[in-house]
Give the backbone structure.
Amino acid sequence: MILKNIEFLITQNPSREVLKDIDLRIDGDTVTGIGDLQPDDEEVLKMSGKLVMPGLINAHTHASMALLRGISDNKKLMDWLEEYIFPAEEEMDAEDIRLGAILASTEMLETGTTCFNDMYEKPDKIAEAVEKTGIRAVLSRAVFDWDGDGEKRIQKAKETVRKYGDHPLIRPSIAPHAVYSCKTETLKQVKKYAEKHGVPYHIHVSETRSENQDHLEEHGLTPTEYLEEHGLLDSSTVAAHSTWLTEEDIELLAEKEANVAHNPAANLKLGSGIADIPRLMQAGVNISLGTDGPASNNNFNMFEEMKLTALLHKRKDPEALTPQQVLDMATVNGAKALGMEEEIGSIQEGTKADLLVLDTQDTELKPHYGKQGIISNLVLSHTGHPEKVFVNGEKVVEDGEALGVNKKQVLKKAQRKTEKFVQASENS
Ligand SMILES: [Zn+2]
């Protein structure tokens, strides 16, 4: 297939080229040509007046929590979890996890996300949603062991790694929930497994101030120091949040080449704090971007997350972050965090064809001041509504609508579920 005469191609290649009036060839799941291309008995899509860019990567989320969107909006993290989220999750069965993930994947695709990094229960059900909608995902069975079922969860987490090692849309990861919810032995055991299989080690780190203080009191180390002490920090670590880091923590993350998944909306909503992203970047830490679950966001729109990131870190210094740096977080940096930088996050010969098609005649994209102005419009102006979306070479969104789902039915079912979740939290 050839995408012919693309007005602007945002490549996100190493020199961050924005190409004008250019063609792009997709063979199967892969981008195989960029330039002035002659169609060779293949489908041609006319792209004049269109902008093509890499699909965005949500580096930290819990997709199925889409069903809990808006269940509680005015609580601190621990109260929010204990009074609302945990009781509702107790009621969540396999079908709910599947339905929540379908709702989430639909929203993600329609707002321009083509890959998400998930941590939750029953990943097989989330995999069904991935296959149905055609989105790409990194899936894990969350591991924690505060209730005596740790061993069972570890086995399931390992099973997930074995099962999805060779899937066209799914990569597995290992995801211990956090240092405070897993025993040291558990953290180490699953790390060994992640290393053996070369998969990411996805963990919540220093989300709240009290989490940090409690950990310091109990262990005499910050969560980051503790991870380092036990050999759990390296380039496969995806540290979600990293809101409360000391200067030593930042240096450790940089030295060990660990990745941070920044979740500014969730951190603001739960009053958890603001991660010092400019300082982390200055230290050389790879910063990716995530929405976290939609009960704490309350959506999956990575264009919104980019704008929020840019503005949040400009509050003290308007020169802190450029739009290009923020776009990098949502594309190439996310890919790097997941160990997939050769495949996704940029559009180059040999990368997977995960891309968005936007209309350059959209008011949000005009005018633009040169090529940098286009990037600026994408990060600070566009609100996330691609016309078409391709994942792995397959068209999964057309005219702004996800193709793989009966949306009306999904929305109706999701609405019906609210009753039982509200009851669960009221009874808690
Ligand atoms: Zn999270």
Q: What stands out?
A: The two ends are 55 Å apart (CA to CA).
